[in-house]
Amino acid sequence: MKPGIVYSSLFIFSSLFFFNCKVDPKIVPVLPSDNISETVPEGWPQPNYTFSTNPVSEAGFILGRALFYETLLSKDNTISCGSCHQLTSAFANTDHKLSHGINDLLGRRNAPGLFNLTWHTSFMHDGGINHIENQPPAPITNTVEMGEELENVVQKLQASEKYRKLFNDAFGDELVTTQRMFKAITQFQGLIYSYDSKYDDYKRGKAQLNETEKRGYSLFLDKCNACHKEPLFSDFVIRSNGLPVDPSLNDIGRGFIENQPQNYYKFKTPSLRNISKTAPYMHDGRFSTLQQCLNHYTGGITNLTNLDPLLQNGISMTEAEKADILAFLLTLTDYKLLSDQRFADPNFQ
After folding, report:
1. Superfamily of domain 198-335
2. CATH 1.10.760.10 assigned to 58-193
3. What does 63-132 look like in DSSP terms, one character per residue?
4. pLDDT at residue number 83
5. Number of other CB atoms surrounding residue 252 within 10 Å
6. Residue 18 pLDDT > 90, yes or no?
7. Among residues 157, 279, 316, 320, which is most buried (max CB within 10 A)?
Protein backbone atom coordinates (compact mmCIF):
# COMPACT_ATOMS: atom_id res chain seq x y z
CA MET A 1 0.00 0.00 0.00
CA LYS A 2 1.27 3.43 -0.86
CA PRO A 3 2.15 5.81 2.01
CA GLY A 4 -0.50 8.32 0.97
CA ILE A 5 -3.20 5.70 1.09
CA VAL A 6 -2.01 4.59 4.56
CA TYR A 7 -2.14 8.12 5.92
CA SER A 8 -5.57 8.70 4.40
CA SER A 9 -6.88 5.50 5.91
CA LEU A 10 -5.52 6.40 9.34
CA PHE A 11 -7.04 9.87 9.10
CA ILE A 12 -10.44 8.44 8.20
CA PHE A 13 -10.22 5.83 11.00
CA SER A 14 -9.15 8.43 13.56
CA SER A 15 -11.93 10.78 12.52
CA LEU A 16 -14.52 8.04 12.84
CA PHE A 17 -13.10 6.99 16.22
CA PHE A 18 -13.24 10.48 17.71
CA PHE A 19 -16.62 11.16 16.15
CA ASN A 20 -18.14 8.05 17.69
CA CYS A 21 -16.47 8.52 21.10
CA LYS A 22 -16.99 12.22 21.67
CA VAL A 23 -18.54 13.24 24.98
CA ASP A 24 -22.29 13.73 24.86
CA PRO A 25 -23.34 17.35 25.31
CA LYS A 26 -24.42 18.28 28.81
CA ILE A 27 -28.16 18.14 29.24
CA VAL A 28 -29.33 21.09 31.30
CA PRO A 29 -32.65 20.37 33.01
CA VAL A 30 -35.44 22.86 32.60
CA LEU A 31 -36.13 24.85 35.73
CA PRO A 32 -39.41 23.65 37.22
CA SER A 33 -41.92 26.48 37.22
CA ASP A 34 -44.55 24.87 39.41
CA ASN A 35 -45.26 26.52 42.76
CA ILE A 36 -43.19 29.58 41.91
CA SER A 37 -45.63 31.68 43.89
CA GLU A 38 -46.16 33.19 47.30
CA THR A 39 -47.36 30.58 49.80
CA VAL A 40 -48.85 30.75 53.28
CA PRO A 41 -49.31 27.22 54.70
CA GLU A 42 -52.59 26.50 56.41
CA GLY A 43 -52.55 27.55 60.05
CA TRP A 44 -49.54 29.82 59.67
CA PRO A 45 -49.61 33.54 60.45
CA GLN A 46 -49.45 36.02 57.60
CA PRO A 47 -45.87 36.77 56.53
CA ASN A 48 -44.17 40.01 57.43
CA TYR A 49 -43.23 40.63 53.78
CA THR A 50 -45.54 40.15 50.83
CA PHE A 51 -44.73 40.41 47.15
CA SER A 52 -47.32 43.12 46.54
CA THR A 53 -44.65 45.53 45.25
CA ASN A 54 -42.43 42.79 43.85
CA PRO A 55 -44.72 40.53 41.79
CA VAL A 56 -43.41 36.99 41.58
CA SER A 57 -42.63 35.70 38.10
CA GLU A 58 -40.69 32.75 36.75
CA ALA A 59 -38.29 35.15 34.99
CA GLY A 60 -37.75 37.11 38.21
CA PHE A 61 -37.13 33.90 40.14
CA ILE A 62 -34.65 32.64 37.52
CA LEU A 63 -32.76 35.95 37.64
CA GLY A 64 -32.73 35.87 41.44
CA ARG A 65 -31.41 32.31 41.45
CA ALA A 66 -28.66 33.22 38.99
CA LEU A 67 -27.64 36.21 41.12
CA PHE A 68 -27.68 34.14 44.33
CA TYR A 69 -25.05 31.82 42.82
CA GLU A 70 -23.15 34.53 40.90
CA THR A 71 -19.50 35.10 41.88
CA LEU A 72 -19.44 38.41 39.97
CA LEU A 73 -21.08 39.89 43.06
CA SER A 74 -17.73 39.63 44.89
CA LYS A 75 -14.63 41.78 44.47
CA ASP A 76 -12.41 39.01 43.08
CA ASN A 77 -15.25 37.11 41.37
CA THR A 78 -14.84 34.03 43.57
CA ILE A 79 -17.60 34.22 46.20
CA SER A 80 -21.37 34.05 45.78
CA CYS A 81 -24.23 33.98 48.26
CA GLY A 82 -24.37 30.25 47.59
CA SER A 83 -20.77 29.84 48.74
CA CYS A 84 -21.91 30.16 52.36
CA HIS A 85 -25.56 29.10 51.99
CA GLN A 86 -25.89 25.58 50.61
CA LEU A 87 -29.12 23.85 49.64
CA THR A 88 -28.32 20.50 51.27
CA SER A 89 -27.76 22.31 54.58
CA ALA A 90 -31.03 24.26 54.38
CA PHE A 91 -28.90 27.11 53.04
CA ALA A 92 -26.61 27.15 56.07
CA ASN A 93 -22.89 26.29 55.86
CA THR A 94 -21.73 23.04 57.44
CA ASP A 95 -18.14 23.47 56.28
CA HIS A 96 -17.09 26.29 58.60
CA LYS A 97 -17.82 27.64 62.06
CA LEU A 98 -17.39 31.15 60.69
CA SER A 99 -18.10 32.39 57.18
CA HIS A 100 -15.18 32.50 54.74
CA GLY A 101 -15.08 35.36 52.26
CA ILE A 102 -12.76 36.68 49.57
CA ASN A 103 -9.08 35.84 50.03
CA ASP A 104 -10.26 33.24 52.57
CA LEU A 105 -10.90 36.00 55.09
CA LEU A 106 -12.81 34.94 58.19
CA GLY A 107 -16.04 36.59 59.20
CA ARG A 108 -17.22 37.00 62.75
CA ARG A 109 -20.30 34.79 62.57
CA ASN A 110 -21.72 31.51 61.34
CA ALA A 111 -23.89 31.49 58.21
CA PRO A 112 -27.53 30.86 59.25
CA GLY A 113 -30.01 28.77 57.30
CA LEU A 114 -32.24 30.60 54.81
CA PHE A 115 -35.91 29.62 54.60
CA ASN A 116 -39.30 31.10 55.46
CA LEU A 117 -37.60 34.50 55.30
CA THR A 118 -40.76 36.45 54.50
CA TRP A 119 -41.89 35.85 58.09
CA HIS A 120 -38.72 37.34 59.56
CA THR A 121 -39.02 40.78 61.08
CA SER A 122 -35.27 41.41 60.85
CA PHE A 123 -32.19 39.86 59.27
CA MET A 124 -28.62 38.95 60.20
CA HIS A 125 -27.72 37.50 63.62
CA ASP A 126 -27.99 40.92 65.24
CA GLY A 127 -31.22 41.89 63.48
CA GLY A 128 -29.46 44.90 62.01
CA ILE A 129 -31.45 44.85 58.76
CA ASN A 130 -35.20 45.31 58.93
CA HIS A 131 -36.28 44.56 55.35
CA ILE A 132 -35.64 41.50 53.20
CA GLU A 133 -34.91 43.57 50.09
CA ASN A 134 -32.22 45.46 51.99
CA GLN A 135 -30.41 42.31 53.11
CA PRO A 136 -28.29 41.46 49.99
CA PRO A 137 -26.09 44.60 50.10
CA ALA A 138 -24.74 43.65 53.54
CA PRO A 139 -22.72 40.57 52.50
CA ILE A 140 -21.90 42.04 49.09
CA THR A 141 -20.22 45.11 50.58
CA ASN A 142 -18.82 43.50 53.75
CA THR A 143 -15.02 43.68 53.48
CA VAL A 144 -14.48 40.13 54.81
CA GLU A 145 -17.32 38.53 52.88
CA MET A 146 -17.79 39.57 49.25
CA GLY A 147 -15.96 42.87 49.59
CA GLU A 148 -17.39 44.55 46.51
CA GLU A 149 -18.95 47.94 45.76
CA LEU A 150 -22.47 47.94 44.40
CA GLU A 151 -21.49 50.22 41.51
CA ASN A 152 -18.92 47.66 40.37
CA VAL A 153 -21.45 44.83 40.59
CA VAL A 154 -23.87 46.75 38.39
CA GLN A 155 -21.14 47.42 35.82
CA LYS A 156 -20.07 43.77 35.70
CA LEU A 157 -23.63 42.54 35.27
CA GLN A 158 -24.44 45.19 32.65
CA ALA A 159 -21.43 44.06 30.64
CA SER A 160 -22.66 40.46 30.64
CA GLU A 161 -24.79 39.32 27.71
CA LYS A 162 -26.25 36.62 29.95
CA TYR A 163 -27.47 39.10 32.54
CA ARG A 164 -28.72 41.64 30.04
CA LYS A 165 -31.01 38.91 28.73
CA LEU A 166 -32.07 37.79 32.22
CA PHE A 167 -32.88 41.35 33.29
CA ASN A 168 -34.79 41.91 30.06
CA ASP A 169 -36.79 38.73 30.66
CA ALA A 170 -37.60 39.77 34.22
CA PHE A 171 -38.14 43.52 33.85
CA GLY A 172 -38.78 44.21 30.17
CA ASP A 173 -35.47 45.85 29.33
CA GLU A 174 -31.75 45.18 29.81
CA LEU A 175 -31.04 47.87 32.41
CA VAL A 176 -29.27 46.54 35.51
CA THR A 177 -29.99 48.43 38.73
CA THR A 178 -29.44 47.60 42.38
CA GLN A 179 -33.17 47.81 43.07
CA ARG A 180 -33.88 45.22 40.36
CA MET A 181 -31.04 43.03 41.65
CA PHE A 182 -32.38 43.02 45.18
CA LYS A 183 -35.99 42.45 44.14
CA ALA A 184 -34.95 39.44 42.07
CA ILE A 185 -32.80 37.98 44.86
CA THR A 186 -35.75 38.52 47.20
CA GLN A 187 -37.98 36.52 44.87
CA PHE A 188 -35.52 33.63 45.02
CA GLN A 189 -34.78 33.77 48.76
CA GLY A 190 -38.33 34.68 49.73
CA LEU A 191 -39.74 31.61 48.02
CA ILE A 192 -37.49 29.18 49.89
CA TYR A 193 -40.25 27.67 52.00
CA SER A 194 -39.88 24.92 54.57
CA TYR A 195 -43.15 23.31 55.65
CA ASP A 196 -42.89 19.68 54.55
CA SER A 197 -41.16 17.94 57.45
CA LYS A 198 -42.40 14.89 59.35
CA TYR A 199 -43.63 17.30 62.02
CA ASP A 200 -45.72 19.15 59.41
CA ASP A 201 -47.19 15.89 58.12
CA TYR A 202 -48.02 14.96 61.72
CA LYS A 203 -49.83 18.27 62.25
CA ARG A 204 -51.73 17.70 59.00
CA GLY A 205 -52.72 14.19 60.08
CA LYS A 206 -50.63 12.53 57.37
CA ALA A 207 -47.95 10.96 59.59
CA GLN A 208 -47.47 9.65 63.11
CA LEU A 209 -44.74 10.43 65.62
CA ASN A 210 -43.27 7.49 67.49
CA GLU A 211 -43.45 7.42 71.29
CA THR A 212 -40.02 9.01 71.76
CA GLU A 213 -40.87 11.81 69.34
CA LYS A 214 -44.21 12.38 71.05
CA ARG A 215 -42.56 12.70 74.43
CA GLY A 216 -40.01 15.04 72.89
CA TYR A 217 -42.73 17.17 71.37
CA SER A 218 -44.50 17.50 74.71
CA LEU A 219 -41.22 18.40 76.43
CA PHE A 220 -40.40 20.88 73.68
CA LEU A 221 -43.70 22.68 74.17
CA ASP A 222 -43.02 22.86 77.90
CA LYS A 223 -39.36 23.88 77.83
CA CYS A 224 -38.50 25.42 74.45
CA ASN A 225 -41.60 26.81 72.78
CA ALA A 226 -41.50 30.12 74.66
CA CYS A 227 -38.72 31.30 72.32
CA HIS A 228 -38.95 28.80 69.46
CA LYS A 229 -42.65 29.17 68.78
CA GLU A 230 -44.57 26.97 66.40
CA PRO A 231 -45.02 26.85 63.46
CA LEU A 232 -41.91 28.86 62.51
CA PHE A 233 -40.02 27.60 65.57
CA SER A 234 -38.77 31.09 66.42
CA ASP A 235 -40.29 34.33 67.64
CA PHE A 236 -37.37 36.19 65.97
CA VAL A 237 -36.80 38.22 69.14
CA ILE A 238 -33.32 39.63 69.81
CA ARG A 239 -32.15 38.21 73.15
CA SER A 240 -29.13 36.98 75.09
CA ASN A 241 -29.02 33.25 75.81
CA GLY A 242 -26.05 33.48 78.17
CA LEU A 243 -23.27 32.19 75.92
CA PRO A 244 -19.79 32.82 77.33
CA VAL A 245 -18.07 35.50 75.27
CA ASP A 246 -15.41 34.29 72.84
CA PRO A 247 -12.52 36.70 73.52
CA SER A 248 -11.07 36.16 70.05
CA LEU A 249 -14.26 37.56 68.50
CA ASN A 250 -15.65 39.76 71.27
CA ASP A 251 -18.95 39.82 69.43
CA ILE A 252 -21.37 42.08 71.26
CA GLY A 253 -24.22 41.25 68.91
CA ARG A 254 -26.99 43.83 68.85
CA GLY A 255 -24.59 46.20 70.57
CA PHE A 256 -22.91 46.79 67.21
CA ILE A 257 -26.23 48.10 65.86
CA GLU A 258 -27.39 50.03 68.90
CA ASN A 259 -24.33 50.77 71.00
CA GLN A 260 -26.03 50.79 74.36
CA PRO A 261 -25.21 48.49 77.29
CA GLN A 262 -28.67 46.93 77.32
CA ASN A 263 -28.10 45.57 73.79
CA TYR A 264 -24.81 43.77 74.37
CA TYR A 265 -24.61 40.03 73.59
CA LYS A 266 -28.10 39.87 72.14
CA PHE A 267 -28.75 37.88 68.97
CA LYS A 268 -31.83 36.93 66.98
CA THR A 269 -33.52 33.69 68.02
CA PRO A 270 -32.98 31.23 65.14
CA SER A 271 -35.60 28.91 63.73
CA LEU A 272 -35.20 25.27 64.73
CA ARG A 273 -36.60 23.99 61.46
CA ASN A 274 -34.02 21.84 59.68
CA ILE A 275 -31.82 22.13 62.77
CA SER A 276 -30.33 18.67 62.22
CA LYS A 277 -28.80 19.97 58.96
CA THR A 278 -27.56 23.42 59.97
CA ALA A 279 -24.62 22.63 62.27
CA PRO A 280 -22.46 24.16 63.64
CA TYR A 281 -24.70 26.04 66.04
CA MET A 282 -24.99 29.44 67.70
CA HIS A 283 -24.00 32.74 66.11
CA ASP A 284 -20.31 31.82 66.22
CA GLY A 285 -20.65 28.13 65.36
CA ARG A 286 -19.15 27.06 68.69
CA PHE A 287 -21.27 23.92 69.08
CA SER A 288 -21.01 21.04 66.65
CA THR A 289 -23.90 18.98 68.07
CA LEU A 290 -27.43 19.59 69.28
CA GLN A 291 -26.53 17.76 72.49
CA GLN A 292 -24.02 20.51 73.25
CA CYS A 293 -26.74 23.10 72.66
CA LEU A 294 -29.07 21.46 75.18
CA ASN A 295 -26.20 21.06 77.65
CA HIS A 296 -25.62 24.82 77.47
CA TYR A 297 -29.14 25.49 78.72
CA THR A 298 -28.87 23.04 81.61
CA GLY A 299 -25.47 24.11 82.88
CA GLY A 300 -23.49 26.28 80.47
CA ILE A 301 -25.08 29.68 80.96
CA THR A 302 -22.31 31.86 82.40
CA ASN A 303 -22.71 35.26 80.73
CA LEU A 304 -25.36 36.95 82.82
CA THR A 305 -25.15 40.35 81.09
CA ASN A 306 -28.60 41.07 79.64
CA LEU A 307 -29.54 37.40 80.06
CA ASP A 308 -33.10 36.86 78.87
CA PRO A 309 -35.57 36.57 81.79
CA LEU A 310 -36.80 33.22 80.46
CA LEU A 311 -33.32 31.78 81.07
CA GLN A 312 -32.56 33.21 84.51
CA ASN A 313 -32.65 29.73 86.01
CA GLY A 314 -31.58 27.84 82.92
CA ILE A 315 -33.79 25.05 81.60
CA SER A 316 -34.24 21.94 83.69
CA MET A 317 -33.83 18.77 81.61
CA THR A 318 -32.75 15.25 82.49
CA GLU A 319 -30.54 13.33 80.09
CA ALA A 320 -33.53 11.18 79.13
CA GLU A 321 -35.59 14.29 78.43
CA LYS A 322 -32.81 15.71 76.27
CA ALA A 323 -32.76 12.52 74.24
CA ASP A 324 -36.51 12.77 73.67
CA ILE A 325 -36.28 16.43 72.66
CA LEU A 326 -33.47 15.63 70.25
CA ALA A 327 -35.63 12.93 68.67
CA PHE A 328 -38.41 15.46 68.17
CA LEU A 329 -36.05 18.05 66.67
CA LEU A 330 -35.13 15.53 63.97
CA THR A 331 -38.75 15.57 62.81
CA LEU A 332 -38.30 19.22 61.77
CA THR A 333 -36.08 18.31 58.82
CA ASP A 334 -37.66 19.16 55.49
CA TYR A 335 -36.07 16.69 53.10
CA LYS A 336 -38.21 17.92 50.23
CA LEU A 337 -36.59 21.34 50.50
CA LEU A 338 -33.08 19.92 50.80
CA SER A 339 -33.42 18.19 47.43
CA ASP A 340 -35.54 20.78 45.61
CA GLN A 341 -33.68 21.44 42.36
CA ARG A 342 -35.52 24.72 41.81
CA PHE A 343 -33.17 26.16 44.42
CA ALA A 344 -29.99 24.41 43.31
CA ASP A 345 -27.01 26.09 41.69
CA PRO A 346 -27.92 26.34 37.97
CA ASN A 347 -24.21 26.22 37.09
CA PHE A 348 -23.96 22.60 38.28
CA GLN A 349 -27.17 21.13 36.96
Report:
1. Cytochrome c-like domain (1.10.760.10)
2. yes
3. HHHHHHT-GGGSTTS---HHHHSBGGGTTB-SS-SS-B-GGG-B-SSPPPP--SGGG-SSBSTT--B--G
4. 96
5. 18
6. no
7. 157
